[in-house]
Task: structure prediction
Amino acid sequence: MSNPDSGHSGHKYERAVERENERELARGRVVLDAAGIQRATTRIAHEILERDADVSDLVIVAIVRGGEPVAKLVCAQLEALAKHAVPLGALDITLYRDDVVARGVRPMPRPTRMPFSVDGKRVVLVDDVMFTGRTIRAAMDAVLDFGRPAAIQVATLVDRGHRELPIKVDFVGKNIPTARAERVVLRKRADGELEVVIV
Amino acid sequence: MRHLLGIESMSRDEIERVLETSEAMLEISQREIKRVPTLRGRTVINVFLESSTRTRVSFEIAAKRLSADAINVTRAGSSLSKAETLADMARNLAAMSADVLVVRDSVAGVPHMLAERVRVPVVNAGDGCHEHPTQALLDAFTLRQSLGSLEGRVIAIVGDISHSRVARSDIYCFTKLGAEVRVAAPPTMMPAGIEALGVKPCFSMQEALPGADVVVMLRIQQERLAGALFPSVREYAGTFGLNARTLALAKPDAIVLHPGPINRGVEIASDIADAEPSRILDQVTNGVAVRMAVLYLLTGGAS
Result:
């Protein structure tokens, strides 16, 4: 820590990067607005119930941080439709990322909250944007460290393609074809509304 | 982050980065399978040339919960007893592709000296009367759990300020995080010029504790110091010991820390050490999380 320029130089730098990122996203093209997100998450909830209407062993696990707002919406829809409580957890996969384990990059890990057992449960992982599949690979490893689920399924608000691992999505809100270099991001606007933008 | 040698050379941002990373690490120890794959294939060597149970075990557990291989070297079984120099031993350990050296020594400055001689990140696990940075970080982490922020909080550190590396690291850490720090000791245990570190020296509990949000009690090395720096253990306990009577001088909901091992009935009464205001066992739990964060951040290299 005596050499602050050897990688990370603390919070100030990160906050500056975040502000710059916000400005860039504000200029992006909106591909899914708040109403579209509401429809997409409703569809995901219906598809989850079509696959299996029994929610007694269903748990929703959001992937931190992008998956959290999506998972909240899906979970609320599920509870309204099934009239049954659906547990919601949040999984941070930073410490399982292949670039962290193999190459040593050091992003900030966030707390994980898994206030239930996954043993014998149907676990639906929820993320905002499905891209290379590496996040889901890491998330599956993480879930398996918490127990032995009966099944793991994947729901994503947006699938943008470009898979690098043999991973399929079970429930998709919207397929959006993209170029590899583009960024697709779920953001919260200043007025609190969610939207998905392409930059 | 290249090394963790002391809090003195860290910025507030760097301290907060470690504390924030520790939040995520804490949860891992509560899982049934207490292990993440992050440091798979990495090797952490704990070079403990001064005796220690808690800190050594804490670093070893921290390394293992991150899936690193942890190896312990102690003075007794090491080639230092064959008169190999410390620097040569460290170079040899580095040549075996160690990824982190964690160093504890009774001589101040040893971790710094080694950091200049090997190309491996070095963590100071306590060097003489100088610094014990991971203890200060886990103390700050424990206090933030109860208090949120340390900004504007009043913290009294009581005990042998002259010989305590914990006191020194705590002073740097707490003042950088915005706390008001008082140190309390008999004159024989108060270093001259301690005000230069931005703390207020006090010579009684009555002076140090009123208004304090936190009381940090330091271990009295009674086997070494009784008769030398204070007349008797009993007299020390009566004047600078923490008990129900002296704790009542601090704020009603004041928190008590102690780096351990505690001397029951000397610097701290049993009923205080085991009761509600004490966070002594939380400190031990949090120590693993903070050391996991330090190992995680130091093994990043120049990413």
Notes: The beta strands of chain B are 43-48, 69-74, 100-105, 122-127, 154-158, 180-184, 200-202, 214-217, 255-257. The interface with chain A takes residues 1-5, 9-11, 13-14, 16-18, 20-21, 23-28, 31-33, 35-40, 66, 296-297, 299-303 of chain B (CB under 8 Å). The mean pLDDT of chain B is 94.
